[in-house]
Write a structure and sequence with these properties.
Strand content: 35-45%
Number of strands: 69
Oligomer: single chain
Distance between the termini: 57 Å
Number of helices: 2
Largest sheet: 6 strands, antiparallel
């Protein structure tokens, strides 16, 4: 998408700055993708939720939510958690690194139990054993081979039990098969002796073993198990059970079937506590039995009142977009991940609660049929966003000229919010999806000329969107959309696109639309000279789009163009009579051997006939060498040439063993006034996802040079942005993980060097970035947990500590007392020590710390970035030899990243501290083995830290060695740690578990 310059008069309008200076913050949107819910059975106003954005808790029945993951590293992605019903302040949760965490204070703090799953396995379900505390069960599946698609070889029994609060697990008992994965585990909440375990399903087209059961049962607390359910109707799949639910009385339900449970699964019912089973209706969503009515069971949002014989959809208002209608005129409903009955249900005033894909948390009253989530998602963040656009006209709705921001949702597969809009610069969000029949939006493009610049003209803005529609058959469409009124209403743009028919349904099919781009010279028809002046008024007519292509037409229309994108004339289907033409005839083909998929398309700002497109290759037949990378067209897309440079020096990197197959180009940006200068992000995403880098060409793709100095650890860059008013300033958005954090990077020299500007940003970072067109200091990022915003403040040395802060450091702004202002030294950073206030907010204590690189090798070692204070409490309690006492951090923690450096010695001065008192030590939070997320935690760092003064420590860091987060070979040093002591107040009578000392001290 082109980043448009703004008419100068708009730059004088007042803007609302919402982000904290120099720190990334977020205010939503709330809701999104929620995987699971669990109530506190004793205090049902307390609910816990696992979402795409993390772990959350409400204490007021959903009116507001807060993060509840202090110390819970790398949670998300649908990982299970469970609450101990006999001690509801205790919870257990697995992280992405396969470690088990426990909280003993209602999710205020988390710590590892010491247990890690076996290699090549994943946890599928957790179950509390009622009647005792500290006892739980887990089911574990074998990971699928990326080559064959079948489970890898595992050993032992993968139904496991812990009797010591998750510290250790052992095989659940006798009678269970070994070397077999399990997809489900459930314990009767009324009788802890009754248990069920469902086998993992998988399929490779071969017949299953004739003796293989799907389900096992224990009646003696797991000591002994017997097979209770087999189904031999599956002839090419290994059937299993993915969901279990104990209902009223002796009724139990199971969801069993073939691999992936996609239309080949059934509800099974037992009326004798699981001893015998009968096969009922075909269904595929998780089962939830009514707590008091034996014959009522739910499968997702469908209800059966006859014990699973028939299911009827209960979807009134169960949608994130009421105007997304299928071919029958019904609203496309949200998919439900988890359905939970509130404690006490069906008493008056209670609800059924649903964790949904796209709509956040929704609920339905006991005496009603309508679902609603409008008031119960505030602060619950799970909105994954892949596209951002900002209207070049300010909002008149707020009266303060704030930005109008659009953010496109990316995780939807059926129904989703599709699009969010903020009219106050990101302070609050609403959906903007009336008529928008999209489940995901990968691209947003605003016609900058369509609204003019008069007050209120923003209401006439034309907005284009590209993405994909619902996977639901009768609700599919081409994934191209337009609004002529600033997102108030939407329509589809699918004229002349190849169609596909299945049964009674026909739709325009080009897979996922990945980018849309307006020709800036197309305001008149016929188009003027492609090298003429840019349009300054009117409406732009020519729109380009990229997609996967039409599968039934040889994957044509991967690149396409319309010259009447803005038409108001309707076709026979009642939609805009837009005419798309395919432009990919000379692009390398997508076929049975390989798929070449275009991603970003950009237009030469000096010649509208010259286009560039970045692609990625999906090799289907091993050994195929198909040209991919960057392509260029000099004739408005009629023909294309490979513009990735030579194979080897001077070219974009190729996949090993190929000459033409380039790394995936997932982001492409062009200079706003020089059509020969471009930047491309590349990554070998199938083989080595940490191979990412940025390359630059100054000759239109004839040759390329790596331009990624400062991009730490080769993170996966997913978006590139050039400041249109200052083209030497670039931004890159990188995705990552807890031990190799992604970041937002900034370059001030045309991409020659980069520095992270990521203070406060989540570790998984961003896949979309956009500058405020009125104020280039404000940058917005789309992440898996909403829109994050930063107000960039002067920071001349680029270390992440603002100049204004560093100038207030001790010694007149010379914190390390070397005679030079800290604000002018990239190797020296001064900031304010933090502590946690009475709430969760971070507060400055009035003291300063200073970090100074005093020596280094293996690179320049001259630039620290993201120098910041970090609240120790965010990492959970640092227990002393397992507790109950724990370390206190009066100065909290210091975090910094040193770029282009293999070894460094850093001095850290805490200006108001006195380390001559008490028993101080220096502690490190991070992985004990760099790059290994399953080693993240608190560690003693005295082997590499030395106290060298009353208030000063010296730490020694080395690439790939203990003390740095990032993987070996990254040539970057990411550190987080601080001085710790044992606070005697923890021993005083009356100190309660979970109490916060503000500020903590060791007096």
């Amino acid at each position: 998408m082109r980043k448009w310059p703004v008419v100068s008069i708009l730059a004088m309008l007042p803007m609302l700055a919402l982000a904290g200076p120099g720190v990334w913050t977020s205010s939503g949107p709330s809701g999104g993708l929620v995987y699971a819910l669990q109530f506190n059975p004793v205090s049902p106003t307390i609910i816990y939720a696992g979402s795409e954005g993390g772990f959350f808790k409400t204490t007021n029945r959903g009116a507001s939510w807060t993060r509840a993951e202090n110390g819970l590293a790398s949670f998300g992605g649908g990982l299970p958690f469970v609450l101990d019903a006999d001690n509801p302040s205790t919870l257990y949760a697995f992280s992405r690194d396969r470690r088990l965490y426990r909280s003993d204070d209602g999710a205020l703090n988390w710590a590892t139990t010491g247990y890690t799953l076996p290699v090549n396995t994943s946890v599928t379900a957790m179950a509390d054993i009622p009647g005792s505390t500290g006892q739980l069960m887990i089911s574990v599946s074998a990971d699928l081979s990326p080559v064959t698609g079948v489970p890898v070889a595992v050993s032992g029994t993968l139904v496991l039990r812990s009797n010591d609060s998750g510290v250790s697990f052992s095989a659940a008992g006798l009678g269970l098969p070994t070397g077999v994965g399990f997809d489900s585990i459930s314990v009767d909440p009324a009788n802890g002796s009754r248990m069920l375990a469902g086998v993992q399903a998988w399929g490779d087209g071969t017949p299953p073993p004739v003796t293989r059961p799907m389900l096992f049962r224990s009646t003696d607390g797991g000591a002994n198990w017997t097979a209770v359910l087999s189904d031999f109707t599956y002839v090419t799949e290994q059937p299993g059970v993915s969901s279990l639910s104990f209902g009223s009385g002796t009724t139990v339900y199971a969801l069993g079937g073939g691999y992936a449970y996609s239309g080949d699964a059934y509800a099974y019912r037992s009326d004798d506590d699981g001893a015998t089973w009968v096969k009922r209706a075909q269904t595929f969503q998780k089962l939830s039995a009514h707590p008091t009515v034996a014959m009522e069971v739910w499968s997702g949002s469908s209800r059966s009142v006859d014990g699973g014989v028939t299911f009827v959809a209960q979807t009134t208002d169960l949608t994130a977009n009421a105007s997304y209608l299928d071919a029958l005129g019904n609203a496309v409903t949200i998919s439900v991940n988890d359905l939970v009955f509130e404690p006490g249900y069906p008493a008056a005033g209670t609800f059924i609660w649903a964790a949904t894909v796209g709509g956040g948390v929704m609920r339905r009253p006991v005496a009603g049929s309508n679902w609603n989530g409008a008031t119960i998602n505030n602060g619950l963040s799970g909105t994954s966003l892949r596209s951002i656009a900002i209207n070049p006209n300010p909002s008149t709705a707020t009266g303060n000229g704030a930005q109008i921001i659009f953010a496109g949702y990316t995780d939807g597969s059926i129904s989703s919010p599709g699009l969010f809009q903020s009219v106050n610069g990101g302070n609050s969000w609403l959906t903007a999806n009336d008529g928008l029949q999209a489940s995901a939006l990968r691209s947003l493009t605003i016609d900058p000329l369509s609204a003019g610049i008069a007050p209120g003209a923003e209401a006439n803005s034309i907005v284009y969107g590209g993405g994909r529609s619902a996977t639901q058959l009768q609700a599919r469409n081409a994934g191209l959309y337009r609004s002529r009124n600033n997102g108030v209403t939407w329509t589809r743009l699918d004229g002349d696109i190849p169609t596909r028919t299945i049964g009674a349904y026909t739709w325009a099919d080009i897979g996922t639309v990945r980018d849309t781009e307006l020709d800036p010279r197309s305001c008149v028809v016929p188009l003027p000279s492609p090298t003429g002046a840019l349009c300054t008024a009117g409406i732009l007519h020519r729109l380009y789009a990229t997609s996967n292509g039409a599968p039934l037409a040889g994957f044509t229309h991967r690149i396409m163009r319309t010259d009447n994108a803005d038409t108001t004339v309707l076709n026979g289907a009642g939609r805009p009579d837009v005419h798309w033409v395919a432009l990919d005839a000379t692009l390398p083909p997508s076929d049975a051997s390989a798929r070449i998929t275009p991603v970003n398309i950009v237009i030469d700002p000096t010649n509208s006939n010259r286009l560039y497109v970045g692609t990625f290759a999906t090799i289907i037949t091993p050994g195929t060498d198909r040209a991919s990378g960057v392509f260029r067209s000099n004739d408005a897309g009629a023909t294309w040439v490979h513009a990735s440079g030579p194979n080897g020096a001077g070219g974009l990197p190729r996949v090993a063993g190929t000459i033409n197959t380039g790394f995936s180009v997932l982001a492409l940006a062009i200079h706003p006034s020089d059509g020969n200068t471009l930047w491309a992000s590349v990554v070998d995403q199938d083989i080595n996802p940490t191979s990412g880098s940025i390359y630059k060409t100054t000759n239109g793709g004839v040759s390329w040079t790596e331009s990624a100095v400062g991009i730490a650890a080769k993170v996966d860059i997913r978006d590139l942005l050039v400041d249109p008013s200052a083209p030497n300033i670039l931004y890159a958005a990188g995705a990552g993980n807890i031990t190799n954090p992604g970041a937002i990077y900034r370059s001030d020299d045309g991409g020659a060097t980069w520095r992270s500007i990521s203070v406060g940003l989540p570790a998984n970072a961003s896949t979309a970035i956009e500058l405020d067109p009125f104020n280039a200091t404000i940058l917005h990022a789309g992440t898996s947990s909403g829109v994050w915003t930063i107000e960039q403040v002067p920071d001349d040395d680029g270390d992440g500590a603002p100049d204004a802060t560093e100038n207030n450091a001790p010694n007149g702004g010379d914190g390390n007392n070397d005679g030079n202002p800290d604000a002018t030294q990239g190797a020296v950073g001064s900031s304010v020590v933090l502590f946690r206030g009475a709430g969760e907010e971070a507060q400055g204590s009035g003291g300063f710390f200073t970090t100074a690189i005093v020596s280094g090798s293996g690179g320049a070692c001259a630039q620290a970035v993201d120098v910041q204070a970090k609240l120790a409490a965010r990492n959970g309690r640092d227990f002393i030899q397992g507790g109950p006492r724990f370390y206190s951090y009066p100065q909290d923690l210091v975090r910094f990243d040193i770029q282009d450096c293999a070894q460094a010695t850093v001095e850290i001065t805490f200006h108001t501290a006195n380390f001559n008192q008490y028993g101080w030590s220096f502690r490190y939070y991070g992985p004990s083995s760099p790059g290994m997320s399953n080693t993240v935690g608190w560690h003693d760092f005295t082997s590499r830290a030395t106290r060298v003064g009353t208030n000063k420590w010296r730490v020694n860091l080395q690439d790939g060695q203990f003390g740095s987060y990032r993987p070996a070979g990254s040539n970057a040093l990411l550190f987080e740690g601080g001085p710790a002591c044992i606070d005697d107040r923890l021993l005083q009578a009356g100190f309660e578990d979970g109490q916060v000392l503000t500020p903590p001290s060791c007096n």
